[in-house]
Amino acid sequence: MSTFTSRLQDNRHALGIVFMVPAALVLLVFLTYPLGLGTWLGFTDAKIGRPGVFIGIENFEYLWGDAVTRLALFNTLFYTFVASVIKFALGLWLALILNKHLPFKAFFRAIVLLPFIVPTALSAIAFWWIYDSQFSIISWTLMRMGLISEYIDFLGQPWHARFATIAANIWRGVPFVAITLLAGLQTISPSYYEAASLDGASPWQQFRHVTLPLLTPIIAVVMTFSVLFTFTDFQLIYVLTRGGPLNATHLMATLSFQRAISGGSLGEGAAIATAMVPFLLAAIMVSYFGLQRRAWQQGGSDK
Amino acid sequence: MSTTVASDAPRVADTEGMNYLVSLPRRVVTVYVPLALFLIVLLFPFYWMVITTFKPNEELLSREGNPFWVINPTLAHVKKLLFDTAYPDWLWNTVLISVVATALSLFCSVLAAYAIERLRFRGSRYVGMSIFLAYLVPPSILFIPLATVVYKLQLFDTRLALILTYPTFLIPFCTWLLMGYFKSIPFELEECALIDGASRWQILVKIILPLAVPGLISAGIFAFTLSWNEFIYALTFVSSSEVKTVPVGVVTELVEGDVYHWGSLMAGALLGSLPVAVLYSFFVEYYVSGLTGAVKE
Q1: Minimum-distance CB partner of A140 among B63, B236, B273
Q2: Is residue A31 in a domain?
Q3: Residues of B in contact with A100 (CB under 8 A)
Q4: Which residues of chain A are modeled with pLDDT < 70?
Q5: Range of the domain at B162
Q6: Under an 8 A CB cutoff, do A19 and B112 touch?
Q7: 3-state class of B244 per DSSP?
Q8: Looking at the predicted structure, is the pLDDT value of residue B18 above 60?
Q9: Gap from B229 CA to chain A (nearest CA, Å)
């Protein structure tokens, strides 16, 4: 028996490594290596077709003094913050609605998720048309209702464009937040609510003291993903505004694309991308530690 | 994962809860009206795509009449899209790239997830953690160095470039998802098979995989839609029209100068969205369990 298990043990470790080979090969060549290379490129003056030399933190120094980069950083933080907060509020609200006893609940849940599953670039095209300066359906409707006197130039003015792109991002992100939070809500036993209402808790108190604490771990994970997606957003901006007008909607991702691929300055673009990493790590850390605490509070084990 | 699996099933009969205490008018205001508003806003862009696709140009470019409806529906935009542009090529590329990238990723992920979750080889915990971290690496910080890698491997402007780079986000996702599914399969089944002399490969193929079919479908559907929707790699690594995918083709080639052909643009967006929407409608449950399964844990 002992030879059998020891052979199995040996076998297990060796086989484990063998089974990891295909995934490891792809990920090391196309993920780990580029990740390292990207950081390195950020410290070089590489251009397309010319391998760069190490120039220290020159790129970062230049970018720090560059008004457009600063604006892009501001835009990214603004975009992420506003869009995430609204996505969370609307997503939670929609999840609470869908968690009520509804006829055709499965059907509603299915169509709610549609904006999330269709290609963002293609739905962004639809938004582009909806935001058109001459034929916008929103402007048409508001005109007819007598609320505005001339068509709104949604994508032509800095603040209009910022809020228009944020609205499109929210449209796409709310379904994700709602459906994942709904899955969390469905794990909360109705008996808590029964107990709470027998004790005279108002609906708000039930939400505040039953729903919210039990939902916190999932909220932490969902919002981390949401913040991650929003902070690194590219397609929506690329399709709707390409960063304009006057760079008012440039995000870090679109700016790094513009500098590196359109402009050819790989090093500079890579430096912008590298500068995004600390923010992403911060977001992950916040959620990770928030999550840990809650799992422990609920009497959960290490996982 | 384990908590949700345990608590999903028995509560179904209980969902009514104390709803009978809430009067109908109150429900209309707190539930049905907001729900209707949400649905209108979430679905309007799709309605608008459809309407625009079938609208003749005169109606599109007129501010008179009711823009919410089509008076003389036309197929001209669809016809233009299918016969005067490279759209059919883009569709074919997208299908081909998505299918191959998904299959490749599933193959790698099944082996990796089985090794991490069931073989528990030395260091598998750390490998599992790094898979999760890899899942968090966004494509928008990876595309610049990846472009140089693709270029060096002489894959630039080929379908293979996309087939090989899409797994960078598909493998971590699928592996993570499958690890959850494999975890729920009892170890006893595997032990019985081992005692009966089955090899690890036989166990994987004949015991684990058949039991993990729902997980495989979830991972497959999800990976397919992720590949179909991918944009930044396809935009960066491909430049010839005949190699482009639908999202990139529509955005870069259908926009000619300042004249926007809204009809064919919307037709392109609609046709490019339909395949994933149809696939999704058949597998909603699998998709949702993939989405929520990947987020929980």
Answers
A1: B63
A2: no
A3: 19, 27, 31
A4: 1-10, 290-303
A5: 81-295
A6: yes
A7: coil
A8: no
A9: 4
**Are the beta carbons of A179 and B60 separated by less than 8 Å?**
no
B147 and B273 housed in the same domain? yes
Interface test mutation site (partner B, options A129, A219, A294, max chain B beta carbons within 10 A): A129
Inter-chain residue contact A34 with B146, CB threshold 8 Å: yes
CB A34 within 8 A of CB B233: no
User: How many CA within 13 A on the CB side of residue B78?
Assistant: 13
CATH classification at residue A227 = 1.10.3720.10
Go through chain A and tell me how many residues it has: 303
Would the pLDDT of B181 be above 50? yes
Burial (CB < 10 A; 0-12, 13-18, 19+), residue A242, is middle
pLDDT of residue A9: 54
Is residue B168 included in any domain, yes or no?
yes
pLDDT digit string (tens) for A198-216?
998 888 898 888 898 888 8
* Chain B residue nearest residue A236, CA to CA: B231
Question: Cα separations (Å) of A179 from A198, A229, A255, B158, B282?
Answer: 29, 16, 32, 36, 18
Which of A4, A9, A26 to probe the B interface (max B CBs under 10 A)? Answer: A26
Residue B2 lies in a domain: no
Are residues B249 and B158 part of one domain?
yes
- pLDDT by residue (tens digit) across A239-255? 999 987 889 999 999 99
Residue A98 · residue A182 · CB < 8 Å: yes
How many folded domains does chain B comprise? 2
Q: How much of chain A, in percent, has pLDDT values that exceed 70?
A: 92
Instruction: Identify the domain containing residue A109 by its residue range.
Output: 42-297
| 8-state DSSP, A42 | T
Q: Is residue B127 part of a domain?
A: yes
Q: Rounded to an integer, what distance in angstroms lies between the CA atom of residue A119 and that of residue B64? A: 32
Rounded to 5°, the CA angle B147-B151-B152 comes to 120
Has residue B4 been placed in a domain? no
